[in-house]
Write a structure and sequence with these properties.
With 100 residues, the protein is mainly α. It is 63% helix and 0% strand. Helix 1 crosses helix 2, helix 3 crosses helix 4 and helix 4 packs across helix 5.
Amino acid sequence: MDSHVIRSQVEALQKAGLLKTCVTLDRAEQCLRKACWSDQIAIVWALQDVLDQARQIKVKITKAQAREVLHRLQEKHDANQGINWDILDYYIREVREVAG
């Protein structure tokens, strides 16, 4: 898993008060990487990826609509196809059309 993704997970745990304040980010990152990500991977698509791609294909969407795109990508994910820019474009346009 990408270091910036793990670091953001650690920071989220800190903000939620789920990490002791004396734990350094580096130590927490090491623990998270070992406990959660040693035997698995995850490809992460972020809200900013959706917003940037919408801008690229000249489709105006809100952050709420971009979140809806992420939810649809997750709900309708087909492991045979994966998630790629064409699929992202499809859901961006779909969410925008539904919004009118």
